[in-house]
Amino acid sequence: MQKKWLVIPAAAVAIGVGVAMTTVSPVSAQGPGSDDMHQKMISIIAEKFGKSEDEVKALFEEIHTEHREQRSAALQTKLSDAVTAGTITEQQKQLILEKMETLKEERQERTEVHKADREQRKTERESKRAELEAWAEANGIDLEFLKSLHEGGPGAGQHLRGRLAK
Predict the structure, then answer these.
(1) What region does 27 belong to: left with phi over 0, alpha with psi -120 to 50, or beta?
(2) Contacts from 15-20 at CB under 8 Å and sequence distance 24+?
(3) Which of 23, 55, 68, 93 is the 20 to 30 A CA-CA neighbour of 61?
(4) What digits encode the pLDDT tens for the residues 16-69?
(5) How many CB atoms lie within 10 A of CB 67?
(6) What is the rounded distance in angstroms from the CA atom of residue 2 to the CA atom of residue 164?
(7) Contacts from 75-81 at CB under 8 Å and sequence distance 24+?
(8) Nearest to 129 by CA among 10, 42, 9, 25
(9) Distance CA 26, CA 61 (A)
(10) CB-CB contact of 97 with 16 (8 Å)
(11) Over the range 142-166, which residues count as b (16 or more CB within 10 Å of their CB) and which as e?
């Protein structure tokens, strides 16, 4: 049975990457039907490996939560290092953390908008980008520095290795 669980990473990476992308990007754009696709993949994995859908969902949520915590810790480290290096001030660090939390909350509130047509999502993305650029400029924060906060980090597939054998 353990061997079967080791096969899941190939199928699960697609879900993990999808989940990771929606949490990494300040403005994510899920396509129409992505919830249906996610559910379909969970159903297929559960059936193929003789697990309940709840077990598969719980595993993905555990991986997602762990990944989110690791990204948060990495962000704290990057920001602290930037303060130490003099790239940003402690006040700017706090502003960035607050802004990122606000963006996260806004992203969650926009779930319904992302189900709307493509043009509406594009318009919203452009508006949010302009708003973020203006915020960064007003606070003396280089937008390239903000972009660099999302670079690197472990991929979603790495979180699956070894976990599925449990």
Answers:
(1) beta
(2) 15/41, 15/42, 15/60, 16/60, 16/63, 16/64, 16/67, 16/156, 16/157, 16/159, 16/160, 17/155, 17/156, 17/157, 19/60, 19/64, 19/67, 19/156, 20/64, 20/67, 20/155, 20/156
(3) 93
(4) 444 444 443 333 344 445 667 888 999 999 999 999 999 998 998 999 899 989
(5) 21
(6) 8
(7) 75/100, 75/149, 78/148, 78/149, 79/149
(8) 25
(9) 20
(10) no
(11) eeebbeebeeeeeebbebbeeebee
Q: Would you say 116 and 58 are in contact if contact means Cβ atoms under 8 Å apart?
A: no
Beta carbons within 8 Å of 120's beta carbon, 6+ residues apart? 113
What pTM value is reported for the model? 0.51
Buried b vs exposed e over 17-29: b needs ≥16 C-beta within 10 Å?
Answer: ebbbebeeebbbb
* Angstrom distances, CA of residue 97 to CA of 22, 80, 107, 144: 18, 11, 15, 16
CB 49 within 8 A of CB 12: no
Closest listed residue to residue 21, CA positions, set 11, 6, 31: 31
